Amino acid sequence: MMIIASVIVFLNVTLLEILVPGGPIENRDFSKLKGIVFWGFNVFLILLGVGSYIASYLLLVSSPHAILMAQVIAVLYFIVYAVDLASIFPKSPTKMSKPLLLLEIVNISMAIFLFLFVTAIR
Residue 48 belongs to what H/E stretch? Predict the structure, then answer.
């Protein structure tokens, strides 16, 4: 079960990584984000990605803290996608494309699934 949880965390971080601005899916303009907001958001997303890789490894080795870490990461993924889908943050003059919308719906579903899965194996 811990190996499956590790794979689910890894899938979540992979789904986040393909949404890099300027990439094939995320094509919105975020040039209006300035200074600390821009860098703060990017640092948060980088730390979320790194934390996901750490959690994935800790799940593989069955660390006692891995489940809690995976639950926190799942909640953070949910928040990231929920505020974007609700058009709260980040704001962009460019409308979200249909492929991006679909992928974010998949991603928020994966975050919910991750939370439920690791909570069930606790």
Answer: helix 35-60
Nearest Cα neighbor of 85 from 100, 70, 74 is 100
Contact 2, 62 (CB under 8 A): yes
3-state secondary structure of 20: coil
Mean pLDDT by 10 residues, the chain (122 residues): 96 93 86 90 95 98 96 98 95 91 97 98 86
Whether the Cβ atoms of residue 2 and residue 121 lie closer than 8 Å to each other: yes
Per the structure block, which two tokens stand in for 79?
A: 């928040």
Residue 75: which of 105, 43, 113 has the closest Cα?
A: 113
In this prediction the pTM is: 0.93
Local structure of residue 65 (DSSP, 8 states): T
Q: Which two tokens stand for residue 23?
A: 């990439």
